[in-house]
From TrEMBL:
Signal peptide: none annotated. It comes from the Bacteria. Acetyl-CoA binds at H148. Keywords: Acyltransferase, Transferase. The active site is at H139. The keyword Magnesium does not apply. This is Sugar O-acyltransferase (Sialic acid O-acetyltransferase NeuD family). It comes from Tahibacter aquaticus. SUPFAM superfamilies: Trimeric LpxA-like enzymes (SSF51161). Belongs to the transferase hexapeptide repeat family. The record marks D140 as: Increases basicity of active site His.
């Protein structure tokens, strides 16, 4: 599948490896003039660069796109997905060959489940969700659109993650807890109580650090 990525940093590298031989990567789009993360693959700068490239190709017919924007930028990821879909690209997700995805789990459009991650029974992943390297999402969790579960994070059973929330690397969320929309759980935090929307929690047990 002939494909472009939006995003040219670390998330692009792990996404490219996850997609493997399924794709032929034609270009990377980024808002900055970055060195290309992939030999022989050009970096197009911003929307203008993408439009010029498309004009030279006579359009998007037969092209796919994946959005490689991670961290606490879930709303940016969803916005780029919408933009690329509106241009006529077919959006791609990725389930790494060495990830575990339960047969009864649900993955929304363009989810990314990366190497060694586990998505267990009756889990629901919304649109544009990232479950990063070696993260574990246990039974009956619900993860809303645009959320990102960082490398090595652990969600115990029946956890609810709000839209565009970010759970940092190595964090642990105990059973039945709720993380509000746009909240950030710091790396290594242990969440023992619910986290309010747009708040940042850190530490073990996790305590409020700031709130928008």
């Amino acid at each position: 599948m002939k494909t472009i990525f939006w995003g040219g940093t670390g998330q692009a590298k792990v996404l490219r490896e996850a997609l493997g031989s399924r794709i032929e990567l034609l270009a990377v789009v980024d808002c900055r003039a970055l060195p290309s993360p992939f030999a022989g693959v050009p970096v197009l700068v911003g929307e203008d660069g993408l439009q010029r490239w498309l004009a030279a190709r006579s359009g998007v017919e037969g092209l796919h796109a994946a959005v490689a924007i991670g961290g606490a930028r879930g709303r940016d990821r969803l916005a780029r997905m919408d933009q690329l879909a509106s241009l006529g690209f077919s959006l791609l997700g990725a389930i790494h060959a060495r990830a575990f995805l339960a047969a009864d789990a649900h993955c929304g459009e363009a989810c990314q489940v990366l190497a060694m991650a586990a998505v267990c029974s009756h889990v629901s992943l919304g649109r544009g969700v990232i479950v990063n390297t070696a993260a574990s999402v246990d039974h009956d969790c619900e993860i809303a659109d645009g959320a990102h579960i960082g490398p090595g994070a652990v969600l115990a059973g029946e956890v609810r993650i709000g839209e565009c929330a970010f759970v940092g690397a190595g964090a642990i969320v105990l059973p039945g807890r709720q993380i509000g929309a746009d909240a950030v759980v710091g790396a290594g935090a242990v969440v023992t109580r619910d986290v309010a929307p747009r708040s940042v929690v850190i530490g073990s047990p996790a305590r409020l650090h700031s709130q928008a």
